[in-house]
Design a protein that fits this description.
By secondary structure, this protein is an all-beta fold. It is built from no helices and 33 strands.
Length: 440
């Protein structure tokens, strides 16, 4: 088959040759011959076949023989300097007289010290080590030919794994790998690639990234072609309303807010309390009957306030002028708070709302203070003349705790002592009442 005790290169195909004979007395049908690699001199079909396919053996007459040859690579991961054996077996065919003599003896060979061996040198480097769920990683590694002979070109690919043990069974990070050029013995090549994080990763979880160089035919050892994994964490952002909110309508927090004017200014701070950057979202102020604020409460404005994208730990002051909801009960205590809208992949969504700040509604209250006076030179309740004109007077008061805007007072003529605006007005126009502070 080969010269006994021949030294062969792990990087070069072995030229194999043998002769097959029909040692019987009848014509033999065609069959197949295969060459085998073995750890001992006893060759069998259970040994390692040296080529993917065998060699066709034609039909042979009794006593005839046929010379056959095939160039086959050395199996991967063989030990340098170790003695192996090469032999051949012809496939048994039906009605063969003796199937026990279909294999040759093994011919001893040993592996030369000339070989190549691709490997990833050390760990890979990656940037950043915390990344958005759909972010891009910059990956770099060094590939080495650790053998004693020149290595042909190959490919290095980066992989995403849930553990630190990297293999080609893990998720490849880029569609195509990076070409590694042919390298002389002991040489290295530095390579890099920008790859997107696989979809649907868990915020806050730790994953691992590594590299594997593709195995090449006749490589000495294919078991050292992958690096160990380097940890990378998916960013965690976390929107919170920082502290409480403030209500500014010229009164202190927890005091009444007026329904006239209807609008008060509400302010708070939104914070990204996580370890990763947060994208833009929205904050809304809410009106509630209890201190527990949720998005199910009544929003105070039709639209919310835009919260810009924030780096980890950053916060943003926000405010909005909103009216109190209609049909609220004067003097009742309500609560105002804020909620920032939950964003996809947010680490914690249970802390997106503030506690409620107590407010109550108040208003102004116009009254005519006491009875009116009638002055036409006679006393009140006496007879008055329809000529000359009657002079009428009254005192108007804002009896509530809020300032009142300007209004109008009218005098009325009635047939009973219950005065209403349905009675007859005494003058074509009323009397202007100026804006009054509370109690004036």
């Amino acid at each position: 088959i080969v010269d006994s005790n021949e030294t062969i290169s792990i990087t070069t195909p072995i030229p194999l040759a043998t002769t097959v004979q029909n040692a019987g007395t009848g014509v033999a049908s065609s069959t197949t011959l295969r060459f085998y690699w073995s750890g001992d001199a006893s060759i069998a079909t259970t040994d390692t076949p040296l080529c993917t396919t065998g060699v066709a053996v034609p039909a042979l007459a009794a006593g005839s023989s046929q010379s056959l040859s095939q160039d086959c690579p050395v199996p991967p991961s063989q030990t340098l300097g170790t003695t192996y054996y090469v032999g051949a077996c012809v496939v048994t065919v039906p009605y063969e007289a003796d199937a026990g003599n279909n294999c040759s003896d093994g011919v001893a060979v040993s592996i030369t010290t000339s070989y190549f061996d691709w490997r990833v040198q050390g760990d890979i480097s990656l940037s950043p080590d915390m990344v958005e769920p759909d972010g891009t990683l910059t990956l770099a590694t060094t590939v080495q030919n650790a053998g004693t002979a020149a290595a042909v070109a190959t490919t290095v690919s980066f992989y995403w794994s849930e553990d630190a043990s990297i293999s080609t069974a893990d998720v490849r990070l880029c569609t195509a790998g990076v070409t590694v050029p042919p390298l002389s013995a002991g040489s290295v090549s530095s390579l890099s690639q920008d790859c997107v994080v696989p979809a649907s990763q868990t915020a806050g979880a730790t994953y691992y990234v590594g590299a594997c160089v593709a195995t090449v035919t006749n490589e000495l050892n294919s078991n050292n072609n992958c690096s160990a994994g380097v940890a990378v964490t998916i960013h965690t952002f976390d929107w919170v309303v920082q502290g409480g909110i403030s209500v500014d309508n010229t009164v202190a927090t927890s005091e009444p807010i007026g329904i006239s004017p209807l609008t008060a200014r509400f302010a708070t701070r939104a914070q990204n309390a996580g370890a990763g950057a947060a994208g833009e979202t929205t904050l809304r102020f809410y009106w509630s009957e209890d201190v527990f604020i949720t998005p199910a409460d009544t929003p105070l404005c039709t639209t919310g306030v835009v919260v810009p994208a924030l780096a980890a730990g950053s916060s943003q002051s926000l405010s909005q002028d909103c009216p109190a909801p209609p049909s609220q009960t004067i003097g009742t205590t309500y609560y105002v708070g804020a909620c920032v809208i939950t964003a996809p992949l947010e680490a914690e969504v249970g802390n997106n709302c503030s506690a409620g700040v107590a407010v109550s509604l108040n208003t102004f209250d116009w009254v005519v203070q006491g009875d009116i006076s009638v002055d036409n030179t006679v006393g009140s309740s006496e007879t008055i003349s329809i000529a000359p004109l009657v002079q009428l007077g009254a005192t108007v008061q804002n009896i509530a705790t809020e300032a009142a805007s300007a209004t109008t007072l009218r005098f009325y003529w009635s047939e009973d002592d219950s005065i209403a605006t349905t009675d007859t007005p005494l003058c074509t126009t009323g009397v202007a009442v100026p804006a009054l502070a509370a109690g004036n």
